[in-house]
Amino acid sequence: MKKVLISLMALAFLATAVSAETHVFWYKALANNYSITDSLEGSAPGAILGPNLPADAIVHEGMIASNCKRASEFEIVMGNGDPTYNTNPARYGRSAAVWSKDLNEMVSTDTSLITSAKIRGEYQDGWSDNSLCNAGQLHFKIGVVDFGPQLTSYWGGPEYVTEDAAWQDYNNTLDYAGTVILAAQEIVTFTAPAARPQSGEEPSLLDKQFFELDVTDQVKWILANTCDNKGSHSGQYALCMLADATNSVYIGKVALYARETCVIAPLSSDAPWTTDGNTVHLVVETAAGSLVDAVEQTGYIKSAPRLELASMPNPMTGSANLYYNTLGQKGSIKIFSTNGKQIFSSAVSGQGSIKWNAKDLSSGIYAYRLTVGNQVISKTLILMK
Predict the structure, then answer these.
(1) C-alpha distance from residue 174 to each of 87, 180, 316 (Å)
(2) CA dist 143 → 228, 257, 288, 299, 300 (Å)
(3) Where in the chain is the domain with CATH 2.60.40.1930?
(4) Topology of 308-383 in CATH?
(5) How far apart are CA 150 and CA 139, in angstroms?
(6) For the stretch 290-325, what's the b/e string if a residue is b when 16 or more beta carbons lie within 10 angstroms of its beta carbon?
(7) Is the peptide bond before 197 cis (omega within 30 degrees of 0)?
(8) Which long-range CB contacts under 8 A does 127-132 form with residues at least 24 apart?
């Protein structure tokens, strides 16, 4: 009898193990041939070397917009990072958000079957004399924000978010006190690892190590409120991490490689795991078959086609390609300086790209605008020389 009981318990354990599955939401992870199974133990608290994902993970490669407040569109920075932050508080209290197109197009048959969900990304240690990470406590709120209004007003809908998307583009705030969290708010204190000293030519201390943050409750809420279940909300949600800049105790800071453009200029003393800077992703553990594509399974209809406008590279050093889709109509692309002076204009129609040469212009931020009839899309482009 004991042998039979043990056998039944073993079978039950195996059935449970077999029925679990890992979903990874990572833009272009397979298309770019990332070695997502790479793993070694890391030195930072809870860190690993490489993504350390299972070989049988289900990878969703739709667009991810991962970005922060008070930093470039190519990294996530969270925290204060300086015990003297009171001398210049506008520089600190960095906060971040992550939006996944594919996550917002999934539904869960039973959210209780989701065992864990995490935001992950490789630490970006910075460069000599300017470490991007800082040891110490990092105190922030995490939660879900309704991202739909920003997606629609700025990009024309989730289908048209571009690789160079930055949170600043969305006419929204990321602030510990001011951001309205829609649901699943939690307070988290995280001890950030030490980065390279801010002097000399010391090598990076965080190369190939990955940060992760538990967002299980937040992902459960999102998957219970997408598509046909969105109610009065937009059905497009982002995960936010809002740093507290009001207490000098919290001097920890975390920076992650977050370049969905998949273009990176390696720093002089860094040897990161990533070769293109695109490391921010979501990992969701759940029972097999409990996450389904809402478009396929529920008849959810995507929004109608809208105008498109994007630039590459951004930031630029001399010239950039401006990509557009006017949906077959006639329109124009114009570029303006910060003082409102028009410095470029071109008629466009259909789908394509034009090259803008800025070799004779000064470094700065320029606005570029697509106008088709009474529809207008405006974005910013950074020129760095």
Answers:
(1) 21, 9, 26
(2) 21, 21, 26, 28, 25
(3) 308-383
(4) Immunoglobulin-like (2.60.40)
(5) 26
(6) bbeebeeeeebeeeeeebbbbbbbbbbeeebebbbb
(7) no
(8) 127/267, 127/268, 127/269, 127/270, 128/196, 128/199, 128/200, 128/201, 128/202, 128/268, 128/269, 129/198, 129/199, 130/198, 131/195, 131/196, 131/197, 131/198, 132/75, 132/77, 132/195, 132/253, 132/255
Task: Please name every residue paired with 294 in a beta bridge, in sequence order, or none if there are none.
Answer: none
Tell me the C-alpha distance between 198 and 81, whole Å. 12
- Cα distance between residue 97 and residue 239, in whole Å: 5
DSSP assigned state of 134: B
Whether omega for the bond prior to residue 313 falls within 30 degrees of 0, making it cis, is yes
pLDDT in tens, the chain (385 residues): 444 434 434 434 434 444 688 999 999 998 899 999 888 665 555 555 789 899 889 999 989 988 765 444 445 666 655 444 434 444 445 778 899 999 999 888 889 999 999 999 998 887 655 567 878 888 888 999 888 887 776 677 788 787 777 655 444 466 677 677 888 899 988 888 888 776 656 777 888 889 999 999 999 999 999 877 788 888 899 998 887 767 777 778 888 888 888 887 665 557 888 888 899 999 999 988 788 877 554 444 444 566 788 887 888 888 988 988 898 899 999 998 877 788 999 999 988 889 999 989 999 888 888 989 877 787 888 898 8
